[in-house]
Amino acid sequence: MDLNGKHIVLGLSGGIACYKAAELCRALIKEGATVQVVMTEAAAQFITPVTLQALSNRTVYGSQWDAREPNNMAHINLSREADAILIAPASADFMAKLLHGRADDLLSLMCLARPIDTVPLLIAPAMNREMWAHPATQRNMAQLKADGTHLLGVGNGEQACGETGDGRMLEPQELLQDVIAFFQPKVLAGHHVLVSAGPTFEAIDPVRGITNLSSGKMGFAIARAAQEAGAAVTLVAGPVALATPRGVKRINVVSALDMMDACVSQADQATVFIATAAVADWRPDTAAHEKIKKDGSGLVPQLGFVENPDILATLAQSPRAATGDLFCVGFAAESHDLLAHATAKRARKNVPLLVGNIGPSTFGQDDNALLLVDANGAREIPRNSKLALARLLVADIAKRVARQSA
Ligand code: C5P
Fold first, then answer.
1. Pairing of strands 367-374, 353-358
2. I want to staple 11 with a disulfide (CB 3.0 to 4.6 A). Which of 87, 271, 305, 362 is the partner?
3. Gap between the Cα atoms of 35 and 17, Å rounded
């Protein structure tokens, strides 16, 4: 659970998106957080404190005159216990209040009274598109950001008022991912990570082709972990139906040649390249323009193959890799003798780090085990979820990159 041990004060200001805060509260708790809800009077017009009390298993605070706290200082006590204060939804009015340091109700008072260096304030705005686009709101947002508030963006789409545009509160699952990401150490801040993931598909004709069993899950987890670590991330993905991790730029490709083109064109901006894709070694030498038909003669089509370019080896030989400006990491999916194969592959691909895993026990699974092979030897990262492994691998890569540029 990604929020184990975290205490979140979830603040609701008035807006129709309050109904989504109930789901968010539940999602935070499911990830291991404890949640204390604080609501403004306006929020309580949209959703009852009873709902949030039941979901959070804690009585909800709403008034600065609440006598439950022995010292009668709910605004101090609540903010001192928090690992973060998350305002969702944050109305235009509430943001304006925060900006001016106003404190005429418990929620704004608590935000003002929070220890600014140790209790981060995250806000998820929610409002009508005109209110969102208004210069006053945009000015307030910029100033809140300058004051150290962490702004969690808005969604685009149909609004409760019937209009369509920017200003919807992000969905509970999106906010959850953003909160989880917020707590991850920013070990790759300032870096641009390029990840290749998934299988490739090599066409035989317009309806058939050759592919492999790679699910793309490890590469997608690495892209997510790198984004959580503060990097700008580009994910070049072969044909897989996985959701794009939040904040990651995804480029969909089909064949190895497409993947090569996409990776080469993105590599100029990248400082790290992590090649997790299971790129087809060969492709049919010609792809038929029309479906190859059975003609009843019993004769089978004869396929010839040509070798695909090696994307990793190509980028590992690039001038930027040679000068240490592009740190390349390869993967090896083997069925046996992992250490020997991974060691040989690292040398052949000329990369500083090669990550070995056992193909049949990782393809399609949600967990994996990794063997990190470098010039000094090997280190195992034992079986765990792919996301947990991805975070450990990203932390390891960040150290190597920092050492290299020191
Ligand atoms: O040679 P092999 O396919 O086993 O090497 C695996 C590593 O090389 C992986 O990191 C994979 O993404 C990368 N690779 C590549 N282009 C290829 C073949 C493999 O980038 N054509």
1. antiparallel
2. 87
3. 18
Torsion angle of C-alpha atoms 349, 391, 225, 146, degrees rounded to 10: -130
311 lines ligand 1 (CB under 6 A): yes
**Which protein residue has the closest C-alpha to ligand 1 atom 6?**
332
Residues of the domain holding 252: 192-285+301-405
Q: Which two tokens stand for residue 279?
A: 């790129």
Handedness of CA 60, 63, 64, 67 (dihedral sign): negative
- Number of domains, the chain: 2
Look at phi and psi of residue 233 and say left if phi exceeds 0, alpha if psi is from -120 to 50, else beta: beta
Q: Do 171 and 52 belong together in one domain?
A: yes
- Do residues 178 and 208 share a domain? no
Kindly report, residue by residue over 231-279, the tens digit of the pLDDT: 999 999 999 999 999 999 999 999 999 999 999 999 999 999 999 999 9
Domain assignment of residue 280, yes or no: yes
Burial (0-12, 13-18, 19+ Cβ within 10 Å), 86:
buried
195 close to ligand 1 (CB < 6 Angstrom):
no
Which single residue is written with the structure tokens 């998820």?
Answer: 124
Q: Which ligand 1 atom sits closest to the C-alpha of 309?
A: 21
Residue nearest to atom 13 of ligand 1 (CA): 312
Tell me: pLDDT of 76 over 80.
yes
| Residue 152, domain member (yes or no) | yes
Q: Is the dihedral of CA 226, 231, 232, 236 positive or negative?
A: negative
pLDDT at residue 152 in the model: 96
**Distance from the CA of 392 to the center of ligand 1, in angstroms?**
22
Between CA 34 and CA 46 the distance in angstroms is 23
- Give the active site residues: 161
| 341 falls within a domain | yes
Residue 294 lies in a domain: no
Pick the closest to residue 236 from 181, 288, 274, 186 (CA basis). Answer: 274
Secondary structure (3-state) at 80: helix
What's the pLDDT band for 42 if we cut at 50, 70, 90? very high
Q: Which two tokens stand for residue 268?
A: 């100029």
| DSSP code of residue 119 | S
Give the list of residues 6+ apart from residue 233 with CB closer than 8 angstroms, or none. 192, 193, 194, 195, 223, 226, 227, 245, 247, 248, 249
The half-sphere exposure of 394 on its side-chain side, counting CA atoms within 13 A, is 32
What's the CA-to-centroid distance between 187 and ligand 1, angstroms?
26
- Look at the block and give the residue holding tokens 């020997």: 340
